[in-house]
Every structure is written in structure tokens, then in C-alpha cells.
Amino acid sequence: MPAPYDLSRAELEGLLAGERPFRLRQVWDNLHTRVLRPEEMTDLPATLRASLAEALPGALCQVSRQSADDGQTVKWLWALHDGAQVESVLMHYPDRVTVCVSTQAGCAMACQFCATGQAGFQRHLSAGEIVEQVAEAMRAARPRRLTNVVFMGMGEPLANYDRVFSAIERLHGEMGLSARHLTLSTVGVVPGIRRLAQESLPVNLAVSLHAANDEKRDVLVPLNRRYPLAVLAEACAAYVEATHRRLSIEWAMIHDVNDQRADVAELAQFARPLGAHVNLIPLNPTPGYAVRGSTARRVREFRDQLESLGVNTTVRMTRGAAIDAACGQLAAAFTAT
Ligand code: SAH
């Protein structure tokens, strides 16, 4: 039995065979618009509710839920049907509510400083397993409305293209999230970027750059050996041209590794022609990487230097560090008991 949000409309129709025809639309809306679990669908007869609850168990089983920042940040650890585990993080801001979702259990990209990368790859998530993380966040955010989804949790979304894009289509088409509020973050899977550029649904693209010379990036982000910076820049330019979406560049600031003046110059050279916005993320500590994040002062200087070279720059507010929910810290395999 597929997960509730993996079910197509036709499959749900099959499940409701013998029921009155309007039930299909009612249950579909209950799942997607009202974001209810079958047992909460009190507008259904009790017997139907019970049979649906049995036929459509949730794909995510909560292992733990932790909160930080006065309850403004919530991290879940979910177990999937086969025991694989993933995390998602909900963040409340004054002007928006964002969930960061996982797209794979583990990750094969092996970026040195990333906790998920250090743990290795387990498997792809299904579209329904991705959508259900958003559904859970929508439920938890009430009475506020979840406004943004970022595909920046565990995994490399473009290495799981079909399922991730099918999740994007469902979030946009059925759950009322606009494409401009969906952001996919990639380490630079060039064929995936090129394919995404052709889709009729243009989402925001974030590229995790971290170094703007090949020698350095080859080490920090091994995928760079396959798709070096010049090739990546071309794909990014094509993406911006095709979608008219603003490109973001993510840069985890690592003490003495990528926070020097030469790094500013290289980054500006990469970012400026693309009109990209740079997000600086002070490196969060992870078990497998013994290097520190840049000092707060260095981060500010780096930002000012970039700005003076004409690059729009934001220092990303760190959320959830106390519960290992910050960027690059998601690693269910380490934290699970
Ligand atoms: N695979 C995708 C999405 C997951 S990572 C990608 O790489 O973009 C989400 C973001 O967190 C990326 O920008 C990643 O580079 C960053 N990140 C990874 N480890 C980090 C760490 N230890 N500190 C700060 N940011 C980190």
C-alpha cells in the first residue's frame, strides 16, 4: 500500500470503490487542503473513516520531536516503514513559516563538513514521504500557515529528481504552496539543474558552493570533480535565464579554509555575473570534521567585503543548533538510538 501522499487520485478512487462518488473529492481535499489524517476526517461515516485509517497509515512514524529557540524551531526524527530515519525542521519567523525537508535517507555526496554526508547514503525517499514531512509541518504550524518549503534537509534532491519533482508538483498543485515559496538546494548536480530549468514550474534554486576555485572545491565538495565550477556556472546561468528566478549561493564559513580575502574575490567573480544572492552560514559543528566555523567578526567582514564588490549578501540566522537541527547537522544515523 502506498503512503497517503504517494497515492494518485485514481488509486484513491480504487480504494473508495463502492462509496458514493463525492467521497473521492472529499477525502482528497481532507488529505491535501485540510491536511487531516483519516482518523480525523469526522465528515466521513465512522466505518469509512476506520477503513481508511487502516488502509492509509502515515508513512512517517515519529521517533522524537525536539524544540529550541523558545519553541520557534522544531526538529523531528521520523522512522520510515523499513526503519530508515530522516529529520525535518520547522522554523517560525515573524513573516514566514518554513519547513526544511529531507529528500533522501543519508546522502552519497560526501561533503566533508556535512553530518549527513559523513553518514553515507541509505535510500531515496518517495514523493509521498517528502510531502508528508510538509503535511506534518503544516499541522504543527497551526494556527499559522506554513508558507515556505526548502529542500535542504538530508540528501541531495537532484540525485532523487523524479520523486522530488513529483513532490513539488503535489505541494504546488494540491496543497497551495506557490512555486516562488519552494526552494531546492543542490550541491551542483549539473544535469539535474539543466532538467529543472526546463520544467514549467520554476522553483528557487540554491547552490551550495563553499569554494569558488576548483582545487579547493574538489576537496570540500567531491562532486566538483565531476562538474567543475565553469560547468556549474553555465548551468546556473541557463537556469536563471529560463526561469527568471533569483539564484542563491550557500557558503558555509569555515575558519581559515574559505573565509579569506582571496575567497571573497573568487566568490564575487562567480556570483556577480549570475546576479546571485549569497547566504553566509557560519559552519555548524559536526562529529566528523574537526575544523571550526569562522568567527562572528570574520563573517561580518566577509559580508561587507562581498557587498562592496557588488554582491547581495545575507548572514543566515542560525536556528536549532542546540538540538543539532542547524544546517548540515541533520544526521539521523548518528542520533538515532
Ligand atoms: N544536498 C543539498 C541539500 C542539503 S544541505 C545541498 O548540498 O545543497 C543544506 C545546506 O547546508 C547546504 O547549503 C550545505 O552545504 C549546508 N551545510 C552542510 N553542512 C554544513 C555545516 N556543517 N554547517 C553549515 N552548513 C552546512
Q: Order of helices and strands, N to C? A: HHHEEEEEHEHEHEHEHHEHEHEH
List the ligand species.
S-adenosyl-L-homocysteine
Q: What's the total number of strands?
A: 12
Estimated structural class:
alpha/beta
Largest sheet: 10 strands, mixed
Radius of gyration in whole Å, from Cα? 21 Å
Helix content: 25-40%
Strand content: 15-25%
* Contiguous helical run count: 12
Overall pLDDT score: 95
Characterize the overall form. Answer: elongated
Which stretches of 5+ consecutive residues score pLDDT under 50? none
The main sheet orders its strands as: 1-2-3-4-7-8-9-10-11-12
For this structure, the quaternary state is: single chain
Query: How far do the termini sit from each other?
Result: 28 Å
Mind explaining what this structure looks like?
- The protein is of the alpha/beta class.
- It contains twelve helices and twelve strands.
- α5 packs across α6 (161-173) and α7 packs parallel to α9 (229-243).
- The longest helix is centred in the middle third of the chain and has 15 residues, at 127-141.
- The protein starts with 8 loop residues before the first helix and ends with a helix.
- The structure holds S-adenosyl-L-homocysteine.
- Residues 109, 113-114, 152, 156, 185-187, 208, 250, 252, 281, 283-284, 286, 327-328 line the site of S-adenosyl-L-homocysteine (SAH).
Draw up the topology in text.
Elements: H1 9-15, H2 22-32, H3 46-55, E1 61-68, E2 73-79, E3 85-92, E4 97-100, E5 104-106, H4 115-119, E6 121-124, H5 127-141, E7 148-151, H6 161-173, E8 182-186, H7 190-198, E9 204-208, H8 214-220, H9 229-243, E10 247-253, H10 261-271, E11 277-282, H11 296-308, E12 313-315, H12 332-335
Parallel strand pairs: 4-7, 7-8, 8-9, 9-10, 10-11, 11-12
Antiparallel strand pairs: 1-2, 2-3, 3-4, 5-6
Bound molecules: S-adenosyl-L-homocysteine (SAH).
The site of S-adenosyl-L-homocysteine (SAH) has 17 residues, from β8 and β10.
